[in-house]
Amino acid sequence: EAQVTQNPRYLITVTGKKLTVTCSQNMNHEYMSWYRQDPGLGLRQIYYSMNVEVTDKGDVPEGYKVSRKEKRNFPLILESPSPNQTSLYFCASSSTGSTDTQYFGPGTRLTVL
Amino acid sequence: LAKTTQPISMDSYEGQEVNITCSHNNIATNDYITWYQQFPSQGPRFIIQGYKTKVTNEVASLFIPADRKSSTLSLPRVSLSDTAVYYCLVGDGYGQNFVFGPGTRLSVLP
């Protein structure tokens, strides 16, 4: 089954404690992206990757890092989480770009205390 | 970047046709228009995409006028399960060059 998986689905942590949210897709997609969703703000892109070892900033990259060492994986790293990063995070992938059909993961609800 | 404007919310009744309009006055020549559906606590799901005129698939139709400054998602005969948030996305497919609209919360009533 074609899918995007994220782990963990729920995470509660404290300020400053480094964390990684994993994202994996099994569709051999070149394009992967991370979004955060906050009430009233819709979906905002954090980082995206056009292919292995190619990443770039989205609209709200501050406080986040990503890496793309393999085609299927695109982890989101928060080196020093802060309460304003409390949000619902989605990973997505598509064949070649953002207007190709994007397949979204189930979401990771992060709370930073 | 083309910004989009959608109604914040809409109500409808089962069996009715629902039309949701998205305004994108600054759409660029290379931009496509894509609509997604999102249920609570789930990731968005692709509904339909178009460039101009009309596109139809098994779940919806998308109407785009000649000037492409707006688009209308049409959902025929909605059911309770169509209650969701609908997002309009405009972009050319290359990385950051797209914008998700604020979304329209559709409530289908019995």
Radius of gyration of chain B: 13 Å
Model regions low in confidence, pLDDT < 50 over at least 5 residues of chain B: none
Give the number of DSSP strands of chain B.
Answer: 10
- Provide the succession of SSEs of chain A: EEEEEEEEEEE
Helical proportion of chain B?
under 10%
What radius of gyration of chain A results from the CA coordinates? 13 Å
What coarse outline of chain B follows from CA principal-axis ratios? globular
Roughly how many Å apart are the termini of chain B? Answer: 39 Å
Topology as H/E string of chain B?
A: EEEEEEEEEE
Count, helices of chain B = 0
Number of strands of chain A: 11
In round numbers, the mean pLDDT of chain B is 90
Overall structural class of chain A, as computed from helix and strand content, comes to mainly beta
> Main β-sheet of chain A, in a few words?
7 strands, mixed
Proportion of residues in extended strands of chain B: over 45%
Number of helices of chain A: 0
- Mean pLDDT figure of chain A: 93
Fill in the keyword field for this structure.
heterodimer, A: 113 residues, mainly beta, 4-stranded antiparallel beta sheet, 0% helix, B: 110 residues, 6-stranded mixed beta sheet, 10 strands
Compact summary:
Chain A is an all-beta fold. Chain A is built from no helices and 11 strands. The N and C termini of chain A lie far apart (36 Å).
